[in-house]
Amino acid sequence: FKGSVEKSTIAKDLTKVISTTKTELLFLPLFLRLLKIGGQAAVIVPDGVLFGSSKAHKKIRSILIENHKLEGVISMPSGVFKPYAGVSTAVIIFTKVGVEADGTDFVWFYDMKADGLSLDDKRQPVEENDIPDLLEKWKQRDSTQESDRKAKAFFVPKDEIKENGYDLSINRYKEIEYEEVEYEPPKVILEKLRTLEDEIRADLDALEEMLG
Question: Structure pTM?
């Protein structure tokens, strides 16, 4: 999913867009060059493309958001490409636009946890599968509706992404809902520990008597 090439072998029209030798970054301006206005692409990228802090990483993300229309980011679990690769990946979906007014307003995120196969090297069929839900929510997405960031799918406005250095990692924006756990008072726990110690001591005494 990632690698590098000799700088001298990179097409000049690509180096004008982004200065890098990383193939996972160079592919994106290449796709933009190949697309016609209004054309759409869905590209699988390693997670590092979403949050890398180098100038090249930030530049290509800003191009997708500011100059074109970044439609969605689908986070996939590590293991979906096993046994060939275990790296975490995502799908970014974007449309090539002709004018900035047609560009990004909101980006749709989806947190995919399962694809119907186990996430180990065997990739056996399992019951958990988010793909049908993903496809349904993609068809029904509506950025004008209130977006719950605790859900699997939600929208993030362009300005917020820009404020975060064009970071596209879902964990940057997803809200984690923690379940409240109630514990017994410390005195009760200590009393239970003392009782347990007494039981262990009694068992040890009984064992010692058996051994003579």
Answer: 0.82
